[in-house]
Amino acid sequence: MPTNGLHQVLKIQFGLVNDANRYLTAESFGFKVNASASSLKRKQTWVLEPDPGQGTAVLFRSSHLGRYLSAEEDGRVACEMDRPGRDCRFLVLPQPDGRWVLQSEPHGRFFGGTEDQLSCFATAISPAELWTVHLAIHPQAHLLSVSRRRYVHLCLQEDEMAADGDMPWGVDALLTLIFQSRRYCLKSYDSRYLRSDGHLVWEPEARACYTLEFKAGKLAFKDCDGRYLAPIGPAGTLKAGRNTRPGKDELFDLEQSHPQVVLVAANHRYVSVRQGINVSANQDEELDHETFLMQIDQETKKCTFYSCTGGYWTLVTHGGIQATATQVSANTMFEMEWHGRRVALKASNGRYVCMKKNGQLAAISDFVGEDELFILKLINRPILVLRGLDGFVCHRRGSNQLDTNRSTYDVFHLSFRDGAYQIRGRGAGFWYIGSHGSVCSDGDLAEDFLFEFRERGRLAIRALSGKYLRGGASGLLRADADLPMGEALWEY
């Protein structure tokens, strides 16, 4: 099957947090490093790279500077080398509580300290040399078993997670990484956590928390007994096996989770490819053949729709729409226009997609009317994590308002009704617009919000007032933006 960017492995980026709860920071001025920042931003983001010498050592590259962390023999540390040298090699020593110790490979000393007093000169491990790994990527993704080349998904009938999916299709393939007590949990779309014995539980108990380990750009999940998650048996049931060292069976890729959507036409029926190659609005229920993976081109902002049958929607002769293309081209691109609770799609011939009398879709209309409007519903985000330019959206302590600049994130629950979404947070309270445009999260009644998918991996959220939700200098979520851009776009 051609990938065309469908399966994009996420580059693992992370922050390192010391015992004083401060992040390792690479400064532009003088290429100095310190541990003074209280939140995870660009300067606090690092990428782990394998040592080119194929040894067990690793390299830490600043995502912000593109330079490497180094430690000299006298313990001085910096982030100034644009090419990795001998002093850039570190050994990662995972500790029982999930934290890391970084040891200079050539000099044997341990890296740590506080504020701007960082060094790599300690001969013994103290709390100052312990670092917590905090992933900087968006936490909702697909998990691919490296050995089986199969995707992990929730199996409701067997009440387990299994690595047996050829494609990450449907909501059951969505996993959310939850940062909990210096470790990570794997949360399914129905808000349950994977325990190391393979059972799913409702609370993030100790046996459902894992230490992350990186190996050659892959992820491994170590449980509290030092064993690693792996697909077990013919069904690929995900649970901790016997191995206390990660091999190929214990390694996973994180892949970006693209939006999967269903569309409903003016005849109140689902758009589908169930009855052949023609894309038609002729089904009464939403299953795999009514689900489409939607990708937005970063340059043109146009979108493609990929079906479970392995084909993209494409414009064919006489304006017809068929799910037969195996490669992305101009004819597979559709411009999306937002009309309140509905969307219209314009094909490469400059005409709008409409529903014909027999239910088939065709790009033959010059104007937008009832037959050119569709309900577009996002189906693979029943739980939602939002990240803006300054950080994640999270409940403000002691308040009903929401912060937009946090390093940690809250998980919100989505429901859908007639082209609009309702967002529910902690304590089952709904989002609503309060005084002066502030977004509150303790509503008794659901308020509608419109989602507009504007860029790849980013959406705009529009309140009923017509204003878009944005972050800003105050760090509060507000509905006061006129245009869906910049601070009004959210990674989801």
TrEMBL record:
- GO cellular component terms? actin cytoskeleton; cytoplasm; stereocilium
Task: Show the CDD domains listed in the entry.
Answer: beta-trefoil_FSCN2_rpt1, beta-trefoil_FSCN2_rpt3
Question: Which family does this protein fall into?
Answer: Belongs to the fascin family.
Q: Does the keyword Cytoplasm apply?
A: yes
Keywords (A to Z) from UniProt: Actin-binding, Cell projection, Cytoplasm, Cytoskeleton
Biological process GO annotation list? actin filament bundle assembly; anatomical structure morphogenesis; cell migration; establishment or maintenance of cell polarity
Give a GO molecular function annotation for the protein: protein-macromolecule adaptor activity
All residue ranges annotated as the Fascin-like domain in the record: 20-133, 142-254, 266-376, 390-492
**Cell compartment(s), UniProt:** Cell projection, Stereocilium; Cytoplasm, Cytoskeleton
Tell me the Pfam families matching this sequence.
Fascin
Classification via InterPro entries:
Actin-crosslinking, Fascin, Fascin-like_dom, Fascin_metazoans
The name this protein carries in UniProt is Fascin
